[in-house]
Write a structure and sequence with these properties.
Layout: H1 7-26, H2 36-46, E1 53-57, E2 60-64, H3 66-69, H4 73-80, E3 90-92, H5 102-110, H6 124-133, H7 137-149, H8 156-165, H9 169-189, H10 192-201, H11 204-212, H12 223-237, H13 248-257, H14 275-279, H15 283-286, H16 290-299
Parallel strand pairs: 1-3
Antiparallel strand pairs: 1-2
Helix pairs in contact: 5-6, 6-7, 7-9, 8-9, 12-13
Length: 304
C-alpha cells in the first residue's frame, strides 16, 4: 500500500542473499600446488637427488639419472648396450662441435625432466647441435620449427648454415625461399648496416643457389640481379666498407672499374671462387640491353 516497501519482496531478497552467501562460504579454497613436472625438474635435475650417473662435459658436471637419459637413443645405447660406459657412474663426454656450449647442454639435459624448453634465436643453433649429437628428435623438431617461424635478415644466413650442418632440409628450404622472395627488395627496406651485414653473411654457395633459382623475385630487369651479385661480391672483398647503402652500387662499380690489366676479375685468383654466382646470372637476358652491355664491359668482372 502507498509508498511502503514490499515486505514479501524484501524477505525473498534476504533469503536469496543468505543462500548466495552460504554458497560462497561453502566453496572450497583453491591453492596452486607445485606440479609434478616442477617437482621432478627441481628435485632430480637441479638438485641431483638420487643421481646414479654423473656426466662431465666442457669441464662441467651434471648429476643425472639413467632412467631419464634413456629417452635419448644415444644414451639408451650407451646404458643398455655393450658400451663400457654402461657400468660407469662417472662419464666424460667429448664435445667435438664448437656450436655446443654449457648453456645448451644444461637446457638439453634439463629437457629430460620437464615438458617445456625455452628456445630463442640466441640458443637455437647450440640446442640444435646438442639435439643432433644426443639424438633428441623432439628437441630437434622444436628447434627447426623455431627457426622457420623466426626467419629475418639477421637470422636467415645463420639458420641456413645450421640447417646444412645438421641435415634440416625443411629449414634449408625455408631459408632459400625467404631470400628468393626478398633479397632484391631488401636493399630498399633495410638500413645501411643491416644490408651490409646480410650481404657479408651470405656464403658463395647460398648466393649461387639464390641467383640460380627460378623463383628469385626480380623487381625490374635481369641486370638488377647482376648488380646484386656485384654489390655482394664487393662487400665480401671489402670487409671494412661501412658506407651508405645508396652509395653501395657506385662504390662497387668504381672498385671493379679501377682494376688494371686485361683479365676479367673472375679469371683472377681472387675472383675465381665467385665464378659460380655470376654463371647463375641469366646473361642472355642482360645483354639484350645496350646500356647493360656497356656496364658489363666497364666492370670487367665477367670474361667476354
Amino acid at each position: 500500500m502507498g509508498n511502503y516497501p514490499d515486505t514479501k519482496r524484501k524477505h525473498e531478497d534476504s533469503t536469496l542473499d543468505e543462500k548466495q552467501e552460504q554458497s560462497v562460504v561453502e566453496l572450497p579454497k583453491k591453492k596452486k600446488q607445485r606440479t609434478t613436472s616442477d617437482y621432478i625438474y627441481h628435485t632430480l635435475f637441479v638438485n641431483g637427488q638420487d643421481s646414479d650417473v654423473t656426466l662431465v662435459a666442457l669441464d662441467i658436471e651434471w648429476k643425472l639419472h639413467k632412467l631419464y637419459l634413456c629417452q635419448s637413443n644415444y644414451f639408451k645405447s650407451m646404458f643398455t648396450g655393450t658400451w663400457k660406459e654402461s657400468q660407469q657412474s662417472l662419464i666424460k663426454l667429448e664435445i667435438p662441435d664448437e656450436n655446443i656450449d654449457e648453456e645448451a647442454l644444461h637446457t638439453a639435459f634439463g629437457s629430460f625432466y620437464c615438458d617445456e624448453v625455452e628456445i630463442s634465436s640466441c640458443n637455437v643453433v647450440p640446442l640444435m647441435a646438442v639435439a643432433c649429437m644426443f639424438q633428441l628428435d623432439g628437441l630437434l623438431a622444436n628447434c627447426a620449427e623455431m627457426m622457420i617461424e623466426n626467419l629475418g635478415s639477421e637470422t636467415v644466413c645463420r639458420y641456413y648454415t645450421a640447417a646444412i650442418q645438421y641435415g634440416q632440409q625443411s629449414v634449408e628450404t625455408k631459408c632459400l625461399e625467404w631470400l628468393e622472395r626478398r633479397l632484391t627488395s631488401l636493399e630498399r627496406r633495410l638500413t645501411s648496416s643491416a644490408i651490409v651485414e646480410l650481404f657479408r653473411n651470405i656464403s658463395v654457395d647460398l648466393m649461387e643457389k639464390v641467383i640460380k633459382s627460378p623463383n628469385l623475385f626480380v623487381m625490374q630487369i635481369e641486370v638488377d640481379t647482376y648488380n646484386l651479385a656485384k654489390m655482394w661480391m664487393f662487400l665480401k672483398l671489402n670487409s671494412s666498407w661501412e658506407g651508405r647503402k645508396k652509395d653501395l652500387l657506385s662504390d662497387a662499380n668504381a672498385h671493379f672499374q679501377a682494376r688494371t690489366g686485361d683479365r676479367a676479375f673472375l679469371e683472377t685468383d681472387e675472383g675465381s671462387k665467385y665464378t659460380c654466382v655470376f654463371q647463375a646470372v641469366r646473361l642472355q637476358n642482360v645483354i639484350c640491353d645496350v646500356k647493360a652491355v656497356r656496364q658489363l664491359d666497364q666492370d670487367k668482372i665477367i670474361p667476354n
